[in-house]
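Chapter review: from sequence to fold.
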Amino acid sequence: MALLAAATGLALHALPAPPDGALLFTLGLVGAGLAPAAIAHAALAYPGGRLADSLDRVAVAIGYLVRLGLMGLLVAAVFDPRSGGCFACPQNMLLIQGDPDAADWLSHQAPRAGAVAALALAVLVLLRLVRRPPATRSVAAPVSAAAVAALALTAWADLRSAGTLAPDATDRDLWLATVAALGLVALGLAWRPVRADRVRTALGRLMVAATAGPDDLRDALAQASGDPELAIVVPHPETGVPLTLDGAPAPLRRGRTAVERNGRLVAWLDHDSGTAVLSEIARPAALTLEREALGASQRLQEAEVRRSTARLVEASDAERRRLERDLHDGAQQRMLALGLAIERARVSAPAAQAAALDDARERIATLRHDLRRVAHGIHSVTLAEGGLSEAVLALVDAASGRVAVESLPERRVAPAAEAAIYRLVAAALRLGHPTRLAIDAGDDELRATVSVGGADDSTLAGALAHAGARIAALGGEITVTGATARARVPASGHAPTVAA
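The token string follows.
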């Protein structure tokens, strides 16, 4: 509307003198100076669509008051064309009291006031442009620059009309230049829907691209908005709390634009507080953002499942340690005491009972050995105290088949990671086939390669299923190809933060 008012003012300013008809003549008197205030109004309201600052509203109101009130209505109220010598001029429909002296004074002073108002609005438009956030500045710059040029040209024309010079070709050139500047303002405004259409096309290509990821989407939105720091924020699938795509809390540091699809919130865009153009970018991006939000939600839930599984593994290990301790400190100690009691009884027992006591002593020793083996299977003290290398060598010594150890880690890593690889090796050795082991510890992960001779991939995968679940719970992975299993576990012993 402001741009249309500006065009109307410039058109009225170009009316022939005198125009035909009293209505057109009166409109020319009142509205010929309307353009500068309307141009400033359009520039200050762009791209948000309204005047957001109280100073802007006051400045635009004063501009309209000077350009329409002082230069238009007040002049029309005292200007009588015939008393001024223009007998061919139509009737002034707003004439209240003809006053040639007042009309002459206003013809010199009102344009000066109009020039001051136009220059003040030009300075305000320029200051607003400089103080805008970078993203909004890149969008508003064409419109603001053209508006400043139009206001400066209008001020020049006003100062010329306030003097005693008669209109000449310079005034015509100034009017044409102002029209050209207004055309540039219109082109700047028209660029906005074109920009949104280009964003829509780019997002459409991302939707069908198989390799497009969250970074590609964020880069496309950042480029479209002119904000390189733009971030995508998604709601938590259960609580709705704003999160980044990698699952971290997303505190509001700048502006935040909600993106909805079918009336349902799918994401937010964090951006510079003045990036009003995002309201147009967000609409075509809604479907793509919903896809990324769903992917992020899935990754968050998968991470939560892994964390829950890891907690179960930790609880299981703690229970294993408790059972091993109870067996060692309880049952084994009592059986040891029972064996010693039988040994003392054997010394003083009659010959008829000696054979029975010897048999009981041997049975107690066998039970103690079996109980020690069960306790070691529940929780390896060697693993806890000596580390993975010693625990694997202990398994190799107790294995029934041939085992070749190619490498063992020279340093210790997290107990959970060592326990996962230990369970993998123990499960493979229980098959009783010739086995080759290679275990090494890198900076970030513990790696193991286990080759079991005579075993196919289904047999080996089934034997290692439980150990594989433990490895996966820690954020690692295991692959079985033929008779060879390859596993890796984070050296920290827990799953890393899931990146989107």
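Two observations follow directly from the output. Residues 310-378 form one domain. The first helix runs from residue 2 to 13.
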